[in-house]
Design brief:
Helix 5 runs antiparallel to helix 6. This protein starts with a helix and ends with a helix. The protein contains 7 helices and no strands. By secondary structure, it is mainly alpha-helical. The protein has a single domain, classed as Serine Threonine Protein Phosphatase 5, Tetratricopeptide repeat (Alpha Horseshoe). It is found in: Mitochondrion outer membrane; Peroxisome membrane.
Length: about 170
C-alpha cells in the first residue's frame, strides 16, 4: 500500500515538475562542438548552394541546442529562411525546425502555428505529427497547472477570509 501511495506522489510530483512529459519531449540535443563545426563549415563554404546547406545544418543544430541563446539564434535564422522559400519540401523542413525551436523555447502558441503550417504542406509527416502531439500535451499540462494554481490561490484566499471572519 505504501508503495502505491509513493508512486502516486511521485507521478504527481513528476507531472508538476515536468518529468512526466520528458519522454514525449525527447528530441535530439546538440552540443556546442557540433554547432561550432557547423559554423566553421558555413564560414568555409564557397558557393551559394553549399552555403544554404550549411545554414540549414547550423539552424538544425541551434534549435537542438541545450542553450536558450542558441535556440533563439536558430529561430531567427529559420524565420528569415521561411519567408523566401518556394520549395514545399524545404518549407516543411524549415517550418518543422521553427516549430521545434519555439517549442523548446517555451512559445507553444507559435510552435503550434508553425507545426500546423508544416502539416498543411505535408499532412502525413510523422515527425511533424509527433511534435504536434508534444505541443498539445504541453499546452494541456500548462493549462492544468494554471488551473491548479488558480484553485490553490482561491483556496488560500477563502481560508484567510474564513479565519478573519471567525476572529
Amino acid at each position: 500500500m505504501d508503495a502505491a501511495i509513493g508512486k502516486v506522489f511521485d507521478s504527481v510530483s513528476d507531472f508538476f515538475s515536468g518529468a512526466a512529459s520528458a519522454s514525449a519531449d525527447e528530441f535530439p540535443l546538440c552540443d556546442s562542438d557540433i554547432i561550432s563545426g557547423c559554423e566553421k563549415e558555413l564560414a568555409e563554404a564557397q558557393d551559394e548552394g553549399r552555403k544554404k546547406e550549411c545554414i540549414m545544418r547550423l539552424s538544425w543544430a541551434l534549435v537542438h541546442s541545450k542553450m536558450p541563446s542558441d535556440i533563439q539564434r536558430g529561430i531567427a535564422m529559420l524565420e528569415a529562411l521561411v519567408v523566401n522559400d518556394t520549395s514545399a519540401m524545404k518549407l516543411r523542413e524549415k517550418l518543422y525546425l521553427l516549430a521545434l525551436g519555439y517549442y523548446r523555447s517555451g512559445d507553444f502558441s507559435r510552435s503550434r502555428d508553425c507545426i500546423e503550417r508544416c502539416l498543411e504542406v505535408e499532412p502525413e509527416s510523422g515527425q511533424a505529427q509527433a511534435l504536434k502531439k508534444a505541443i498539445e500535451d504541453r499546452i494541456v499540462k500548462d493549462g492544468v497547472i494554471g488551473v491548479g494554481i488558480a484553485v490553490t490561490a482561491v483556496g488560500v484566499v477563502a481560508g484567510i477570509a474564513a479565519a478573519i471572519l471567525r476572529s
